[in-house]
Design brief:
The structure holds two protein chains of two kinds. Chain A has no helices and eleven strands. By secondary structure, chain A is mainly beta. In chain A, a hairpin with a 7-residue loop joins strand 9 and strand 10. Chain A is globular and about 35 Å long. The N and C termini of chain A lie far apart (38 Å). Chain B is mainly β. Chain B contains no helices and eleven strands. In chain B, the strands form two sheets. In chain B, strands 2, 4, 5, 9, 10 and 11 form a six-stranded mixed sheet that branches. Chain B is globular. The model of chain B has no long low-confidence stretch (mean pLDDT 94). Classes of the chains: A mainly beta, B mainly beta. At the A-B interface, strand 5 and strand 10 of A face strand 5, strand 9 and strand 10 of B.
Chain lengths: 112, 110
């Protein structure tokens, strides 16, 4: 069966520090991968999605970047965090676009 | 860009009462998905609707897709405390990628 791993679960980082969140999927090949951010009490904002290795699409201009160095690995990064980067970050995968998405446990990031 | 609107934002019910959340899009959707997120958790897929006028049931949950494929609803009969959480709809509004509504947060008073 397929599983998705996302870590860490919580993270407190100072303003200006770098960020690296990792997500890996097991049990499937060539998944579509997604990074979402959820502000407290709000919906999910799509940040990046990838249909294959090295293929990244950015949905909103921001202080973050994403990379997919391997088929089932998706990384969210920042060189210098801002206070506004705080939030709940969720990685997800799907077989195709617009099919059911499976979410990781999420990382709760607080920038202080 | 195009959006998926969800109402209400919050709903407080007494245990045993019914609950409905509505999802509306300005554009025709090829499909719509529903997810549930428990407090502190991550979204979990519930169902996908594809056909115009489609109705699907999962125990006490009834999902409907409008005839014009622009709206959808989720109805829970006789809510239980285990139903608490935020319910999201998602549809391929922008360039084929699924856009999530802001969700309806349900609280159930025992």
């Amino acid at each position: 069966s397929q599983t998705i791993h996302q870590w860490p679960a919580t993270l407190v980082q100072p303003v200006g520090s770098p960020l690296s969140l990792e997500c890996t999927v097991e049990g499937t090949s060539n998944p579509n991968l997604y990074w979402y951010r959820q502000a407290a009490g709000r919906g999910l904002q799509l940040l990046f999605y990838s249909v294959g290795i090295g293929q990244i699409s950015s949905e909103v201009p921001q202080n973050l970047s994403a990379s997919r160095p391997q088929d089932r690995q998706f990384i969210l990064s920042s060189k210098k965090l801002l206070l506004s980067d705080s939030g709940f970050y969720l990685c997800a995968w799907s077989v195709m676009e617009n099919t059911e998405a499976f979410f990781g446990q999420g990382t709760r990031l607080t920038v202080v | 860009g195009q959006q998926v609107m969800q109402i209400p934002q919050y709903q407080h019910v007494q245990e045993g009462e019914d609950f409905t959340t509505y999802c509306n899009s300005s554009t025709t959707l090829s499909n719509i998905q529903w997810y549930k997120q428990r407090p502190g958790g991550h979204p979990v897929f519930l169902i996908q609707l594809v056909k115009s006028g489609e109705v699907k049931k999962q125990k006490r949950l009834t999902f409907q897709f409008g005839e014009a494929k622009k709206n959808s609803s989720l109805h829970i009969t006789a809510t239980q405390t285990t139903d608490v959480g935020t319910y999201f709809c998602a549809g391929p509004v922008n360039a084929g990628k699924s856009t999530f509504g802001d969700g309806t947060t349900l609280t159930v008073k025992p």
